[in-house]
Amino acid sequence: MRRIAVAIMGTISGLVLLFSYHTSTSSRMAVSGGTTVAGAGTATPTVPDPAATSGTSTVPSTPSTGTASPAPSTSSPAAPAAPAGSSGSFTGSSVDTRWGAVQVQITVQDGKITQAQAVKYPHNNGRDQQINAYAVPTLNQEVVTAQSANIDAVSGATVTSDGYLQSLQSAIDQAHL
């Protein structure tokens, strides 16, 4: 009888601990209409010069595009907004995540997103490279398909996906889409 009581109490204690565990440890930074994020990207009509990087870690684009286009992180205020239906490249703000910075650049032609690419994302170790080798191209394609930041996060790359979505929204806001 005593063993049964101990087993029941142990089970109850285990359940209490299990249900009191907080599963979300990430803190998502919300960027609202009136908030300015330090290091916000700027609207640029052309692809940035690769030699212009200033000590920031950038990663070449996916192999399907064949070009590298790093975007330097700036702390200056954003350039004047482009009119709706405009064309050009817009680089979102660099978002610091737990695993590294994420920054997205979109190319807009006649008010439609024709290309999206992460110009910065975590790649410091083999695991980051493995995860982002499938996550970043998936996110890039989803943006072009959805024509908005209303896309799903990639399973297994939640932190990168969250940073990607925040930077993407910043670029879309600059393009006034």
What report would you give on this structure?
By secondary structure, the chain is α+β, with helices and mostly antiparallel strands. Helices cover 33% and strands 15% of the residues. A hairpin with a 4-residue loop joins β3 (95-96) and β4 (101-109). The longest helix has 21 residues, at 126-146. The model is unreliable at 24-82 (pLDDT under 50).
Please summarize the sheet with the most strands: 5 strands, antiparallel
Estimated share of beta-strand residues = 5-15%
- From the N-terminal CA to the C-terminal CA, the straight-line distance is 69 Å
The string of secondary-structure elements, in order, is: HEEEEEHH
Helix content range of the residues, please? 25-40%
Total helical segments: 3
- CA-based shape: elongated
Oligomer: single chain
- Rg from C-alpha positions? 21 Å
- Can you count the beta strands? 5
Structural class: alpha+beta
**Overall pLDDT score:** 73
Low-confidence stretches: 24-82
Question: Quick gist of this model?
Answer:
The chain has three helices and five strands, in the order αβββββαα.
Features:
single chain, 177 residues, alpha+beta, elongated
List the helices and strands and how they pair.
Elements: H1 2-20, E1 43-44, E2 88-91, E3 95-96, E4 101-109, E5 112-120, H2 126-146, H3 158-175
Antiparallel strand pairs: 1-2, 2-4, 3-4, 4-5
